[in-house]
Amino acid sequence: MLAPIKPLASWKGQDRYFGKVVPSLTGIFLSGGCSWNRCRMCGYKNDRNSCISREELITHMNAQIAWVAKNNAAGDYTLGKIFTSGSVFDPHEIPCEMLDSFGNLFAGKSVIAESRAEYVTEDALLRFLDSLDQGQPHPLTVAIGLETTNDGIREKSIDKGFSFEDFIRATEVCHDAGVGVKTYLLMKPLFLTEHEAMEDMQKSIAEVIPYADMISMNLCTVQGRTDLEQYWQRGAFRPPYLWSAVKVLLDAEVPVSCDPVGGGFRRGPHNCGACDHRIVAAINEYSLSADKSVLQRVWDAECSCRKEWEFVLDYEQSWNMPLTK
Ligand code: SF4
Ligand SMILES: [Zn+2]
Q1: How many distinct structural domains can be found in the chain?
Q2: 92 domain residue, yes or no
Q3: Contact yes or no for 148/188 (Cβ under 8 A)
Q4: How far apart are CA 232 and CA 222, in angstroms?
Q5: Ligand 1, pocket-test mutation among 31, 39, 40, 50, most atoms within 8 A of CB
Q6: Which residues surround ligand 2, an ion (CB under 5 A)?
Q7: Checking CA distances to 118, which of 171, 183, 249, 296 falls within 20 to 30 Å?
């Protein structure tokens, strides 16, 4: 066993989990890297430990888990969030022995683990639960990046490589095993106008409600070394307006969480610069409290850039994507 190694990132915070605000510990672990490795907006796929053997990968990942255990008192949090540069349940990326190590690290607590839909199997879930589950409520939730319920947008604008049907199958496997489902949706992938992006998000939230225990909306950011970045550098992409995010959250029938990463910066969701900070703060506060009055206040406060956003919604034209080859 190697000496403890710091994961890519690790921090404590608070999260809303099955309707309660709980102290959380998030770890982003360096793994073998995403096997799919194609999504147009994704920069995480560049984080990979792919030149080493399976045994070395296990040793290296266990060293990261040891670091987390050493640097965080177990009593400080009740929810562990595991992210890798891909899927926790992909056996090529993360050898299945690691599920035992993660389960032992978080035994008796709740865990959210991120995975693509196709790796969600009964075997993997039960193996994880074996060490994790000590009778606590909601021991495990799988977070799946569905991004949108529209298969065409998921294929053309994201290149995600799985369908809404695949996602539904994964949610059934989870629920049959007593495991929760958190769904990530992506606001404004490539090639959508602001208006199309809002419509897609509103439709996706409505359509995913029957399958998800929690919904989280990610606002598209421009990450380095991605397809999306190349379009953005040529002026062919603008991240979503924060106004769009507020409107979608206000209209949603269920609480939808949102962490506006990069909010107010050119590469992240932004408005005019003057109103961004307070809107980002309101979205973060709403994500924890689910109190819509926080959002309503920033919506009612307006700003001169609201007119610009409304103009964009009315006049932005969509790109033409051919349906045939
Ligand atoms: S978004 Fe997820 S599935 Fe897509 S390339 Fe990135 S890590 Fe892989
Ligand atoms: Zn503004």
Answers
A1: 1
A2: yes
A3: no
A4: 7
A5: 39
A6: 271-272, 274-275, 303, 305
A7: 249
Nearest Cα residue to atom 4 of ligand 1: 39
Decide: 34 in ligand 1 pocket, CB within 6 A.
yes
82-132: pLDDT as tens digits: 999 899 999 999 999 999 999 999 999 999 999 999 999 999 999 999 999
CATH number at residue 119: 3.20.20.70
Let me know: does 113 contact 170? Beta carbons within 8 Å.
Answer: no
Q: Is the CB of 36 under 6 A from ligand 1?
A: yes
43 occurs within a structural domain: yes
Q: Is 322 inside a domain boundary?
A: no
DSSP 3-state helix, strand, coil percentages of the chain (rounded to 5)? 40, 15, 40
Q: How many CB atoms lie within 10 A of CB 296?
A: 14
Residue 2 maps to a domain: no
Of 42-56, 138-152, 206-220, 306-320, which gets the smallest average pLDDT?
42-56
Q: Identify whether the C-beta of residue 102 lies closer than 8 Å to the C-beta of residue 66.
A: no
Can you list the positions of beta strands (E) in the chain? 9-17, 20-28, 79-83, 110-114, 140-147, 180-187, 214-219, 256-257
Contact status, residue 103 vs residue 109, Cβ threshold 8 Å: no
Taking the whole predicted model, whether its pTM rises above 0.90 is answered as: yes
Q: How far apart are CA 180 and CA 50, in angstroms?
A: 30
Pairing of strands 110-114, 140-147: parallel
| pLDDT at residue 1, as a whole number | 66
Q: What does the pLDDT look like over 195-218, one tens digit per residue?
A: 999 999 999 999 999 999 999 999
Please provide the DSSP assignment of 117-166 as one string: GGG--HHHHHHHHHHH-SS-SS-EEEEEEEE-S-HHHIIIII-----HHH
| Best mutation site among 31, 35, 36 for ligand 1 pocket (most ligand atoms within 8 Å of CB) | 36
Cα separation of 248 and 233, whole Å?
A: 27
